[in-house]
Structure prediction request, 164 residues.
Amino acid sequence: MKKQLTERTHVPTDTSRRCQFQRRDRTRCKAHAHSGLPFCFFHDPALHNQRAAARKAGGIARTRRVVLPAHAPVKSLRTASDIGELLGETINQVRRGELDLRVSNAIGYLSGILLNAIEKGSLEERLATLEAVLASGDRSNNNFGEHESFDFVQQNPEDPSSPQ
Prediction:
C-alpha cells in the first residue's frame, strides 16, 4: 500500500490569531496577526508608511554596489601560485566577514577563467618552441636518430649507480 504524500504548509492552528485580510477570491491571509491587532504587517492599513520605508530600504540595499575595500592592494596575477594566494586570502576574508560574498564569488569565477588562460598560454609557448626547433631542422640538441627511441629512467638520489 502506497503512502500518500501531502503538502504541508505553515498555517497557524489558532485561526483567531490569523490576519483578517481577505483576498479577492475570499480566502484569508495565512500569516499571524500582530499582537492585539487584526492584521499582519503586510495588510495593516496603519503600517502603510512603515511598509513603504521597508521596501525602499530593501531596494537601496539590493542596488548598492559592493566593491573591495579601498585598502585592498593590487595583486600581480601572472602565475597559478599568484592566483592560489589570492584565493586563499579571499577565503580567509570571507570567513572573517571582511568581504562580501558577491565579491568573493566574482573573484573565484574570474580566477578560474584566468587559470585556464595561463595554462593555455603556457602550452602555446611550449608548442611554438617545439615548432621552431622542428622548422629550423637543427637537431644539434637531439642525441637520437630519426627512428630511435628512448626510455624514461627514474632517478634515485640515494643510489650512486642511478643515472644522473
About this structure: Helices lie at 48-63, 80-96, 101-136. The chain has three helices and no strands. The mean pLDDT is 79. The CA atoms of residues 55 and 94 lie 28 Å apart.
